[in-house]
């Protein structure tokens, strides 16, 4: 065997499934951080709101509202943006998705005791129905949101 094959073989043996998984997640994060500008998803179905708009956009809303607390520098937040944008389009008949940048609008996150991002809160009739802390894949987010729909998502 050539030295290249031996080095490649050793490298492959050194990487466990966990190591490969970690490398894959790092690569995903880097791609999202480079290719998805933070504001890009907001031009789709996710509405960016400020502290001043929170009451009218969330608390007085007749529909279910998913509030996404995030920040520009947050890699996991960037990773979730495309999924939340898809959800906001696919489930637009049942809910709306809004985001609040905790650095630009710190009052509201403080009022709701947001200590970690990404954090999602689901509101209905001005009340918090559910909380999710940390990044999740789209399918898990859809399942979580569906539990808060009036019919439990069994349309």
Notes on the structure:
The protein has helices at 3-14, 17-35, 54-59, 75-90, 107-111, 138-146, and strands at residues 46-48, 64-70, 95-101, 119-124, 127-133. 43% of the residues lie in helices and 19% in strands. A hairpin with a 2-residue loop joins strand 4 (119-124) and strand 5 (127-133). With 155 residues, it is α/β, with parallel strands linked by helices. The protein is globular, with a radius of gyration of 19 Å. It is built from six helices and five strands; from the N terminus they run ααβαβαβαββα. The model is unreliable at 1-14 and 35-44 (pLDDT under 50).
Structural features:
6 helices; disordered N terminus; five-stranded mixed sheet; globular; alpha/beta; 155 residues
Quick take:
The chain has 155 residues and is α/β, with parallel strands linked by helices. Helices cover 43% and strands 19% of the residues.
The best one-word shape is globular
Largest sheet: 5 strands, mixed
Total E-strand runs: 5
Structure annotation, total helices: 6
Helix share, percent: 40-55%
Topology diagram in text:
Layout: H1 3-14, H2 17-35, E1 46-48, H3 54-59, E2 64-70, H4 75-90, E3 95-101, H5 107-111, E4 119-124, E5 127-133, H6 138-146
Parallel strand pairs: 1-3, 2-3
Antiparallel strand pairs: 2-4, 4-5
Helix pairs in contact: 2-4
